[in-house]
Write a structure and sequence with these properties.
24% helix; alpha/beta; 6-stranded parallel beta sheet; Rossmann fold; single chain; 2 domains; elongated
Length: 221
């Protein structure tokens, strides 16, 4: 029985022999790849993955609140009203999420696109997400067209505060589950807690290359 090493070396020899002579056709290579056994474990968690996500995200020092779906608008209004200044809202964010924000609060639109200086002067940003990963406590944003409520990448990298809504149905068990839900041809940002570094003398400094505070509202019916 040939080992993986034997198969790899055989393919290298076939591809390099005689300047390409004897090289297998692309269709044969694709068929061989498709035929590889993939009986590995596809999921590592079968319990309450929303609770696992909340726990792992909190480990990264993110603020995590679990709120019932009917209370989401009130929770967003409370968080926004507690911070002075304007929040930027990307196109396509559900209007119902913002329905209870008081008139004294200021919301900015990224149309036309705000400059980096304008984004830096804002109090924060409110977004949704594409998917969240329970195993790693990670949020994934999809910045491609047709991804409403997430905006361009700068919106979630420049402001100091990021309020993100994660719906329980968006929580995937692990990386394989999450990537299966995403289009690999689109740009994505993976966020695991607030921006932080410990490069200098192992002293943790937050807000270096992204928001200093990540506030997650995990909502479920």
């Amino acid at each position: 029985m040939s080992t993986s090493r034997d198969q790899i070396l055989a393919r290298i020899r076939a591809a390099t022999a005689g300047g390409g002579a004897g090289r297998p056709a692309d269709g044969d290579v694709d068929a061989a790849y498709a035929a590889l056994p993939r009986d590995y474990l596809r999921a590592h968690h079968d319990g309450d993955i929303a609770a696992l996500f909340a726990e792992r995200a909190a480990d990264y020092r993110a603020v995590v609140e679990r709120v019932p779906e009917p209370g989401l608008a009130a929770a967003i209004a409370r968080v926004v009203a507690a911070r002075p200044g304007a929040f930027v809202v990307p196109a396509g964010l559900p209007a119902a999420w913002l329905a209870e924000i008081p008139g004294t609060a200021s919301l900015a639109r990224d149309e036309p696109p705000l400059s980096a200086a304008e984004l830096d002067a804002l109090a924060g940003v409110v977004t949704g997400c594409a998917v969240a990963i329970a195993e790693t406590g990670t949020i994934v944003l999809d910045h491609g067209p047709g991804a409403p409520g997430q905006g361009r990448r700068a919106l979630t990298l420049v402001p100091d505060f990021h309020l993100v809504v994660v719906q329980a149905a968006q929580v995937a068990a692990d990386l394989a589950d999450a990537f299966a839900r995403l289009d690999p041809g689109r740009p994505h940002t993976l966020i695991s807690g607030p921006s932080a570094t410990s490069d200098i003398e192992l002293i943790r400094v937050e807000g270096v290359h992204g928001p200093r505070t990540l506030h997650i509202l995990l909502t479920e019916p």
